[in-house]
User: Fold this.
Amino acid sequence: MERAKTIKNILLGLACLLVLALFGLSIYQQQQLKRLSQGANTESAAVDESAANTMPEPIDTPQKTAVQSAPLAEQTTEGDINNADDLESQLDATEQELEKANKQLADEASRKEELKQKQMELQKQYASDPSFKKYMKASLDTAYADLFKELNLAPEELEKFKDLLVDGAMALNEISPDIMSATTKEQKADLQKRVAAIREENEEKIKEFLGSGYETYHEYTEMETTRYVIKGFTESMNSENQLTKDQEKALTEIMYKEQMKVFAEIGYDPRKQIEFQSDVKSGEADGQLKNMEKIHNASLENSKGVLSAAQLQNYQNYLKSRREMMELSSKLSD
Assistant:
């Protein structure tokens, strides 16, 4: 009995020792955990302090910056899209204007071509009208009045001579629509050959008809262009500065001489070619105007001994106005 009581006391003592040991171990673990916690807090504070010293001064918290940067990116993207839309709209508007301008140019070119065709048709109809030949024949009495006097033909011969002149003019008039529509070098070269052939054939008929009087006719017709110009100048003068017959004749001869000089320089033969539009040496597109100016300037210089100061000034103004009219006509026909 005593033995059992002793064993019981021993077990009770061991249980008490075990409880004390467990209690001590628990206290030790809490102390270790406390130390570890304090060390972690110290390291975190050091890291925060180091980051604060090395990083630039923050404008705002990271969370706030991120929130603000997102709308900024969205705004930039929307701005780029709006700019692209504006540029596309401007491009579309420009293309529409260009298309409109091209259409206007095409319509204008079509209108000019239509007018040219109508003019050619009217000219053909007018040339085939019997009254046209009658009109041309009647106009010769004014244009060739001086020539008719010099030739001194009988009434019947004069009528035949007028018929020859009109027939030659009408033959050239028949191909004038082709001359107006010619655009290529080949077409123009072919027309020049046709014009030269018609003129040569008509000249042979006149030469055969007039005989010895042909030289008088030839010289007169060679000066026809200059005579027309000087005649216009004479009619433009007032009664105070009116030209005499001798002055008119002298001016005609002076201009004809200067005209033939320029024609020789550029290789133009008025009896074979249609018109002298450009200088074959220089290839100038506006050669006709430059050649005309050259003729006028030389004629004006050589007329100083023929005209008075007032007449000379009027002559200069008249020639200038002719060039300006020709230049304007050239621009309108383009």
Notes: Residues 62-128 form the longest helix (67 residues).
